Structures are given as structure tokens and as C-alpha cells.
Amino acid sequence: MKVEIWSDVVCPWCYIGKRRLEHALTEFEHADQVAVSWRSFQLHPEAERGVAVPTIGYLTQRFGPQAGEMTARVARIASDEGLDFDFTKALTVNTIDAHRLIHLAADQGVADAAKERLLHAHFTEGANLADPDTLVALLKEAGVDPDRTRAVLDGDDFADAVQADIDQARAFGITGVPFFVIDRKYGISGAQPAETFRQALATAFKDEAS
Q1: CA 37, CA 6: separation in Å to the nearest integer?
Q2: Are 144 and 126 in contact (CB under 8 A)?
Q3: Domain limits for position 35
Q4: Tens digits of per-residue pLDDT, 64-93?
Q5: How far apart are CA 50 and CA 129, in angstroms?
């Protein structure tokens, strides 16, 4: 069974949804037969590459004074999932290079580790995911060779793969993330409760077995 997840590494609900899916998998008896693939989606494709701006300021510009209340609410929900969000440190960036590196990590069998490391770095540590040196260090922690990471960042490797993910999202009608697709048959939009994911996995598994 294949679960494809369209998400972005600066999307708070994507991190919450990742954790809720993981919780669901711990309760799913056929979890060993589930393969998870990470697909690219950019929340801020208009952001200038290589530039980082404080997320609170960015959100205040977009949503006004209620941005602080919004982020506090999301942080409380994240805490319920065991995640420590610090929006006062978070930096909004163009994530095209982070997505290219997740594809590189997938080639080396460590995509989930890379995704987790980038999400944690952004939401908890306030890392600048537009900075090449930071990305090299984070991918090294996830098990990716620094020289290979640097080579990807210095060129355009995996840019086509990122664009293919974005094009597929558009073809599916995906306009927001996270979005989960099971066996290209079932779609789940948003960071749904773990039980919703568990039920969807059970339904898909039953379909596949019948």
C-alpha cells in the first residue's frame, strides 16, 4: 500500500498531519505493508530564493494582528501531538531547495528522516531553510552525504521531480496541504485525527485484498 503526502516543510499542519499519520500507523496491524512517499508542494512559491523573513511578521502582514493568536492556537494543537512549535523563531522561505533535497534523500532511502529533520529545524529551532550551509548540515544528520547535498544545491538536480509533484497536485485538484493520497484511490485533506487515517488505511487495505 502506498501513501503519498503532498506537503511543505514550512507548513505547520503538515507537521501535525505527519505525526497523526504516524500515530495511526502504530495502531494499524498492516503498517509494515505501507510505504510513505513525500511529494512537493510550495506554500510560498513567490518568496525570493535565498531570503528568509520572520514568520510572525510575514503572517501579520497577511492576516493582521490576529496572526499571533492564530500561531498560538496552532502551537497548542501541535503540543498535543508531542511537537514543540516556536513561531517566534520560525523563518518563512522559498522551499524549492528543501524539496529538491528531500527527493535526493528519497534516492538514498532516508526521505522520512530528512523530512522530519527539516520540519523540526524550521518549527522548533528556527533554522534558515534557505541557507545552503544549514541545509547541508541538516541533511547530513538525516544520513545524506554532504558533498552530494552540496552538488545538488549548486545545480538543478531534482527540480523536474519537484515540478512533477506540483503538476500532479494540480491535476488532483489539490489546493492546500497536507494532502494524503492512498493507492491513488483515496484522498484525505488536512491534518485529520489519527483515527481518520487509521480507518482510511483499513478501508484501502481491505479494497486491495479483495
Answers
A1: 9
A2: no
A3: 2-209
A4: 999 999 999 999 999 999 999 999 999 999
A5: 9
Q: Which pLDDT tens digit goes with each residue over 101-122? A: 999 999 999 999 999 999 999 9
User: Is residue 126 within 8 Å of 89, Cβ to Cβ?
Assistant: yes
**What is the reported pLDDT for 208?**
79
- The number of folded domains in the chain is 1
Rg of the Cα atoms in the chain = 17
* Closest residue by Cα to residue 14 from 49, 44, 43, 36: 43
CATH of the domain at 71: 3.40.30.10
Q: Please give the pLDDT value at position 207.
A: 87
List the grid coordinates of 113.
528522516
Alpha helical stretches, state H, the chain: 12-26, 55-63, 67-80, 96-107, 111-120, 132-141, 146-154, 159-172, 194-209
Q: How many CA atoms lie within 13 A of 189 on its CB side?
A: 6
Dihedral sign of CA atoms 158, 164, 167, 172 in order: negative
